[in-house]
Amino acid sequence: MIKVLGKVLESIVSILGGEKRRKKDLRVISAADIRVGMKVRIPLNWFRHPFWKSTVYIRNQEDVERILALELPFLLEVVDRKDTQPGKDAGESERPEDDKEAMTAEDDVAGEVHETDRSLSASASSVPEKKAFSAKVHHLKVQQCQKAYHEKLVEIKKLIQGVLSFSEETVKEANRTIEVMVSSLLADPEAVVFLINAKKKADVIFHHALNTCMLALLLGRDAGLTGESLCHLGVGVLFHDIGKLRIPKSILYKEKPLTPAEKQFYRLHPDYGVEIASRVSGISPEATMIIRDHHELLDGTGYPRGLTEKEINTLVRITTIVNLYDNYCNPRNPERAFTPHAALAHMYRKLSQKLDRLLLERFIRLMGVFPPGTLVELNTGDVGVVIARAHWSPKHVSVMLYDPNVPSSKAPIVSIGESPEVKIIRSLRPADIPPEVYQYLSPSFRVSYMLDTWTK
Ligand SMILES: [Fe+2]
To answer: Is pLDDT above 60 for 16?
Structure first.
């Protein structure tokens, strides 16, 4: 698949470099700036928008409305380099009927945002221009993912609160939500894992539910689970900590270590969760099993029942890994947080007897040695934070760099896989860098993820 994509991208570059494409360029514009007569490229897969191609000649106000309804933070305007005024690209020779042939290969793949980014890079005329253009698109992509993440968070909160009040309709809704997430995931094998700047400090339980759900589905798919199993996994992980909502907040959010009595109370949350699930129909036995067993460990040291390896199902093993990972990265006391890199290293070195080794190795391959959210130092001397990773390619890692001359919203971004001379040499702890650099790179209060193709 990747080889095929590579060939198609090569053909795009060749088309862009050919006679017919030489006079064309692409410019990032706000969706609010579109008007009749423009030709724009929609940064979504073709099945995610209502047009028959991803490059659209806007013929009338109805087309404008259909594009605005997609709620895209940006589009790409196809412009002629001789005349860069918006809207001047609508001459007869630019009508879609005239260039169907030339656009075919391009349109097949250029709809996807990260792919568009690469074709943009190919058309940029100089290295600095290319980098600035890429950074701008990347920041816009992150904004798009953040919007989708926060919309999903609102949805998840409604579902969890609905189940707490034993609403059967909510369980049906939760099953439908997970089905949509699973089908999107199965349809987009090359989705990119993005770091989300989650600023809202409330609703920690809902952030945890969404984050673990997404990571569990990613790992489950990689482990070869089918659609039905993935749905059971998704619903189970979505509700795995629902019993925590019966634990007093003084224990749940306590930053100091829990007393033995508080720990004992806290450890009741899987049983509370099962009790809640049993009072509302529609939650599958597999999902209930995940709620009950998600703190069980293969060496028998887990709780509440101290199960051993043979008694712990694959769905539970997946949940345990992503649950621990998210808890290490986002603990009750933020000062004790592991960086994503350190969390994986710790799990691999210290917990390999307790976790499913093969699944853990799969998870590390998916997230990378330097998962999004990891502070890193490059061989150029730059310091940055990993903000995105294509799990299908270990080389495709995007790093946002510290640059005191620009605000972090415009910080330079380097794509490690596309710049062979640039390498990550080590991960950094927050204590390794000055506070102002840490603040610039990590304004988020927690490490959260979103897949870019789940934005629509
Ligand atoms: Fe839990």
So the answer is: no
Q: Which CATH number is correct for 137-367, 1.10.260.40, 3.40.50.2300, 3.40.50.1820, 1.10.3210.10?
A: 1.10.3210.10
What is d(CA 248, CA 99) in angstroms, rounded to the nearest whole number?
Answer: 64
Average pLDDT, the chain: 77
Using the mean position of ligand 1's atoms as its centre, give its distance from the Cα of residue 365 in Å: 24
Q: Which amino acid is at 257?
A: P
What residues does CATH 1.10.3210.10 cover in the chain? 137-367
Alpha helices in 27-126 (DSSP H): 61-68, 100-110, 113-123
Q: Please state the rounded mean pLDDT for residues 231-238.
A: 95
Tell me how far the alpha carbon of residue 270 lies from the centroid of ligand 1, in angstroms.
7
Residues with Cβ within 8 Å of residue 307, at least 6 apart in sequence: 293, 296, 300
Within 8 A by CB and 6+ apart from 23, the residues are: 80, 81, 82
**Residue 443 Cα to ligand 1 middle (Å):** 27
Q: Which residue has the higher pLDDT, 236 or 415?
A: 236
Q: What are phi and psi of 451, to 5 degrees?
A: -95, 135
Identify the CA nearest to 148 among candidates 381, 450, 383, 396: 450
Tokens of 111: 């709809």
Number of neighbours of residue 203 by Cβ within 10 angstroms? 16
Q: Is the pTM of this model over 0.90?
A: no
In tens, the pLDDT along 420-432 reads: 778 889 888 888 8
| Cα angle 279, 326, 338; round to 5 | 150
Distance 235 CA to ligand 1 centre (A): 15
The CA 233 to ligand 1 mean position distance, Å, reads: 15
